[in-house]
Amino acid sequence: MAQISHFEYGWITPALSYALSVLGSVLGLVCAGRIRTASSTGQRIWWGSLSAWALGGTAIWAMHFMAMLGFAVSGTRIRYDVPITIASTVIAVVAVGIGLAIVGTGRLTAPRLLVGGLFTGAGVAAMHYTGMAAMRLNGTFGYDTLRVVLSVVIAVVAATVALWLAMTVRRPLAIAGSALLMGVAVNGMHFTGMSALSVHLHPRTGVVSGAGVSTLLTPIVLAVIFVVVGLVYALLAAPTDEDRAAAAYLDSRYAAAEQTPAPPEPIDPVGLRGRSTLGQPGTPFPSRRNPPPR
């Protein structure tokens, strides 16, 4: 059995992985908060998709890969299968998106929350072990069943709590505290699953195929930066509650102005019996000698 190190570069990889999970959780919670306040189905889909990318893509998957940078096995090099790695990303985002769709439509109830958490947690666990299956090294993997089950349970519980927070938390301080808690849960699930792994090296040596960490690191970092910048821009560009209130106030003022009746026409200076001829050519100005016509 080969010797495994989960912290090859010391504290830097777990610290970065935790920071990514907290950052993604903050953005995901803020985007999820817009789902229930959205005024149309299209807006709910938009904010749900952004939240799924933030939570699934950044808080979970990017955190997973960053933590994997510190994973090393003595006696062999580690490579990654690119298609399987991409598939793990899709699994994470889709699982979180479906979970948000389950709890974000209709009234939030305990059965709906449990179903969404179960589905999302299973998807997060599937993402983790799919990402593990993408590793290529000169050996075979083994897993401790009890720790694998424990990691799945942690994933389901963490996903259920995350969905509940996404639908209920609104204030900035509460969002920050929830994101810190979610970061602990996501990292706890990851390292619990990693502790279940064992590697048996092959007696023969050979070339390990696949992409190296340095090859994948640059596009992943750029993708995370673009996603974060895009999410921040979407949040800043979206109208706030104050903007919507101001727009509603202006609409009400415009509607009231349109419904206001026109001012009455001036009264005929000669009375209401007939049409006035005042001011017409040839008509004398009324006086004692020239009384107005009757």
TrEMBL record:
* One Pfam family matching this protein: MHYT
InterPro entries in the record? MHYT_dom (IPR005330)
The source's superkingdom equals Bacteria
User: Which residue numbers delimit the MHYT domain?
Assistant: 9-200
Q: Which UniProt keywords apply?
A: Membrane, Transmembrane, Transmembrane helix
Q: Name one GO cellular component term.
A: membrane
The residues that cross the membrane are 15-33, 45-72, 84-106, 113-134, 146-166, 173-196, 216-236
Species this chain originates from: Micromonospora yangpuensis
Q: Where is this region: Disordered?
A: 256-294
Q: What is the name listed in the Swiss-Prot or TrEMBL entry for this protein?
A: MHYT domain-containing protein, NO-binding membrane sensor
